[in-house]
Amino acid sequence: MEVMIGVEAAALISEIPEFEELMNSDSNVIERFGTIYIYRDLQAAINACDVLIDAELYENMHTFIKHDNGKPGECFFDCGFSDGSNVYLFKDLLFAFYLEGDDELQVKMAKEQIEEHLVFETVLHGVNVLYAEKQFDSLVKGIARAYNCEARFLDLDK
Fold first, then answer.
1. CA distance 33 to 4
2. Which of 109, 140, 147, 155 lies 20 to 30 Å from 30, alpha-carbon distance?
3. CA-CA distance, 81 to 123, in Å (whole number)?
4. Cα dist. 4→12, 29, 108, 111 in Å?
5. pTM
6. Which residues contact 93 (CB under 8 A, 6 or more apart)?
């Protein structure tokens, strides 16, 4: 898991090949997905924003959580995208958690109930970590409680 910064350019950028080439030539760009340029370094992302603002091509800045393993859930395309080898999740839209309980069958059943709301699932340090949209945090807590287990929420800012 790694936090990345995405700078989104206006779709118009594709109609200005010279400017698109300038953005693509930035050595700080880790990856590009459509009109989103992904950076590891915040200052490099801010510099790219300044360039896009000056050219009136700036759309937005996003914070992503990058994973190189795991599997998309049913709600993946609402909150993330993949380039084939890496997955990028919109950090501001999600929460991460894991299920814990004494009865593994109850934990498994709780997970099955939650699956229709999952965005992504991965394993971090031997723990099965699940991502869902922030609007479902109370639902996840309630489902876990109904199956006598607990949803343990992770701090995505660490």
1. 13
2. 155
3. 18
4. 24, 11, 32, 28
5. 0.91
6. 78, 79, 133, 134
